[in-house]
């Protein structure tokens, strides 16, 4: 390529992906790696079981979500003791009404090693339920339709689909996203009529640009069906009157180069969040019958220090999600009086976001609040009176006192002078010293911000003397859109350097030392782990790379691999020499050298649709032949799961227990 030769001695490991289950040599190889991991971790087997029991013991087994009111019914999920999944239920009009169990997912999942039920979508007349099921973990769903009055399933089965769907207001028309069976790309929006053969469903939109994701939804007002088509750097919407589902979709505004926009409907206008001439986004409005960009009028201008992340529309109110100094804020505007205020949260580092708010005509905002020391808390907030009511706080069984833990917000100076935020949490009494174990976590891609949220599993680390830290590095969007722009494409290395500079800042501040410092990241954060293991292997006692994206050049050159084409705006297209050359300088697989590497635990899933299993497998194989140290290198493949790991409420804890045991073993912590 471009006159450059690359040798991939482990390319055969992709055979399971290319040839299917007949490629026994690949499966045998992965099983052998699993056996090796089990052998190397054998001394921790009992400890892993204890950790699993300990973490599971903090989770309330018999539990219920906070009911959400929608179109005359209260909807909620509840879980039962000993069960991995949940029941999806509703009550009519009042929480005192009798329960209707819409789906018993525990029962549905019986006999399946993996089970995912998503996209629960009740028809406007409350009589039908559409939902998606995936039993393989490749995010290829079959959509089923259930008659909620008789309990019977319709014969209609729609496959392959993305799982979600949207009803027309006639209660018999269903719009959904059809996916490509091989590349898994969302290719077409189709219209299904109840009772018809899904193979004959009409295509209402076909995406021609395979770098775009598409999907279908509805405005909160229930007035319009919306088709969205978006890439990393541009988007386009189509709209249709939901009362006329047989009609034709109209383009809201044709896609514009390097312009993102998002829309919702509010009374006599559409609201638009866009980055057109606005790096940190702005809010615009336009009349219902004049949706082209020439009619857009500014409502909230762009600001240099505030990122406008999104809006939640109500009949009389507008909730604007903003991000300032790395923290999320909820701004409430009364559209009748134009009076505004912010919801007060009162902690130095936290995460807060608007939750499920399906009712358009409501004065109540449901939001979720959490921090490194505050468990997930669901609030109802009266946007008129500013009164708030805590509806539920995640219960940590066995007792948890937030006063026993300390959270801090620090700023490390990166090599180019930029200040990078770090969120820390540790147990009171933990002494910060060169002997203190510290786990540093980050993601740093796609503009995904990693906010300071609570984790009950993390207590197993903190209670054994670990400090846990999140590095809010470039490539995320914590500090505004520029933060993202400065951590992608030809600026991707800022992501890796920020993480290394945060680590050095913590070492210099005597929070820890290289002998006790651990790093963790998954997916694109796994790319980060691969890059830092090549750039500064001396900094880490251990690295945990979860489902890591590590073979950047090969994957971005192969358009048969799911999602590759969607990613060109993030990483670049290596068919262009500039991007090829730059990618090759950081791609972890291409930069493995004969040198010492830290202890490493690498995880993957055989059916992963996001990062194919062969990337981490090849990377580990190459590391084995090149590394000059005696440190541990482990690969663990979940043979029944994909990118998200095991399904079920508790199975994933076994994976967490393995990761914790890996670090504890290196620290000499045995119980």
Automatic annotation (TrEMBL):
Superkingdom assignment: Bacteria
UniProt keyword list: Hydrolase, Protease, Serine protease
Enumerate the InterPro entries for this protein. AB_hydrolase_fold, Pept_S9A_N, Peptidase_S9_cat, Peptidase_S9A, Serine_Peptidase_S9A
Peptidase S9 prolyl oligopeptidase catalytic domain location, by residue? 454-664
Q: Does the keyword Repeat apply?
A: no
Peptidase S9A N-terminal domain span = 1-393
Q: Which family does it belong to?
A: Belongs to the peptidase S9A family.
**Could you tell me what this protein is called?**
S9 family peptidase
The organism named in the record is Dyadobacter chenhuakuii
């Amino acid at each position: 390529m471009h006159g450059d030769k690359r040798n991939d001695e482990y390319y055969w490991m992709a055979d399971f992906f290319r040839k299917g289950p007949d490629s026994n040599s690949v499966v045998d190889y992965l099983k052998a790696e699993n056996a090796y991991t089990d052998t190397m971790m054998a001394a921790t087997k009992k400890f892993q079981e204890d950790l699993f029991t300990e973490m599971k013991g903090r989770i309330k087994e018999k539990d219920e979500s906070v009911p959400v009111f929608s179109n005359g019914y209260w909807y909620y999920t509840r879980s039962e003791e000993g069960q991995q999944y949940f029941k999806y239920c509703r009550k009519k009009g009042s929480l005192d009404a009798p329960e209707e169990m819409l789906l018993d997912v525990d029962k549905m999942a019986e006999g399946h090693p993996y089970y995912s039920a998503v996209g629960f979508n009740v028809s406007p007349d409350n009589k039908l339920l559409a939902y998606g099921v995936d039993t393989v973990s490749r995010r290829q769903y079959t959509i089923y339709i259930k008659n909620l009055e008789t309990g019977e399933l319709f014969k209609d089965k729609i496959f392959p689909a993305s799982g979600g769907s949207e009803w027309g207001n006639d209660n018999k028309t269903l719009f959904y996203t059809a996916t490509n069976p091989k590349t898994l790309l969302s290719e077409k929006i189709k219209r299904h009529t109840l009772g018809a053969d899904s193979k004959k469903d009409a295509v209402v939109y076909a995406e021609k640009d395979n770098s775009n994701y598409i999907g279908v939804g509805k405005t909160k007002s229930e007035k319009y069906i919306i088709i969205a088509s978006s890439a990393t750097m541009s988007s386009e919407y189509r709209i249709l009157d939901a009362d006329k589902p047989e009609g034709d979709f109209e383009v809201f505004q044709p896609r514009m180069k390097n312009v993102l926009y998002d829309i919702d409907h509010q009374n006599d206008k559409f609201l638009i969040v866009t980055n057109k001439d606005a790096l940190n986004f702005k809010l615009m409005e336009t009349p219902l019958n004049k949706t082209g960009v020439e009619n857009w009028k500014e409502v909230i201008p762009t600001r240099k220090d505030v990122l406008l992340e999104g809006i939640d529309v109500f009949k009389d109110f507008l909730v604007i999600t903003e991000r300032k100094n790395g923290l999320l804020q909820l701004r409430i505007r009364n559209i009748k009086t134009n009076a505004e205020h912010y919801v007060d949260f009162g902690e130095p580092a936290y995460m807060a976001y608007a939750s499920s708010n399906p009712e358009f005509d409501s004065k109540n905002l449901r939001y979720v609040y959490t921090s490194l020391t505050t468990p997930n808390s669901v609030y109802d907030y009266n946007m008129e009176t500013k009164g708030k009511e805590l509806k539920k706080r995640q219960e940590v069984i066995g007792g948890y006192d937030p006063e026993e833990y300390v959270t801090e917000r620090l700023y490390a100076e990166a090599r180019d002078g930029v200040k990078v935020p770090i969120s820390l949490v540790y147990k009171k009494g933990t002494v910060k010293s060169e002997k203190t174990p510290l786990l540093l976590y980050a993601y740093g891609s796609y503009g995904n911000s990693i906010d300071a949220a609570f984790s009950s599993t993390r207590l197993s680390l903190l209670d054994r003397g670990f400090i846990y830290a999140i590095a809010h590095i470039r490539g995320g969007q914590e500090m505004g859109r520029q933060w993202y722009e400065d951590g992608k494409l030809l600026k991707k290395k800022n992501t890796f350097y920020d993480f290394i500079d945060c680590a050095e800042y913590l070492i210099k501040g005597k929070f820890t030392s290289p002998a006790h410092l651990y790093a963790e990241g998954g997916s694109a954060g796994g790319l980060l782990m691969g890059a830092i293991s090549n750039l500064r292997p001396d900094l880490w006692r251990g690295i945990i790379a979860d489902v890591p994206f590590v073979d950047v050049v090969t994957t971005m050159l192969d358009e048969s691999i799911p999602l590759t084409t969607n990613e060109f705006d993030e990483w670049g297209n290596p068919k262009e020499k500039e991007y090829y050359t730059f990618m090759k300088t950081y791609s972890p697989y291409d930069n493995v050298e004969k040198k010492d590497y830290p202890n490493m635990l690498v995880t993957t899933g055989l059916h992963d649709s996001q990062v194919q299993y062969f990337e981490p497998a090849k990377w580990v194989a190459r590391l084995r032949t090149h590394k000059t140290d005696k440190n541990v290198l482990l690969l663990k493949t979940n043979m029944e799961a994909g990118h998200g790991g095991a399904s079920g409420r508790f199975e994933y804890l076994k994976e967490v227990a393995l990761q914790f045991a890996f670090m504890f073993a290196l620290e000499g912590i045995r119980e």
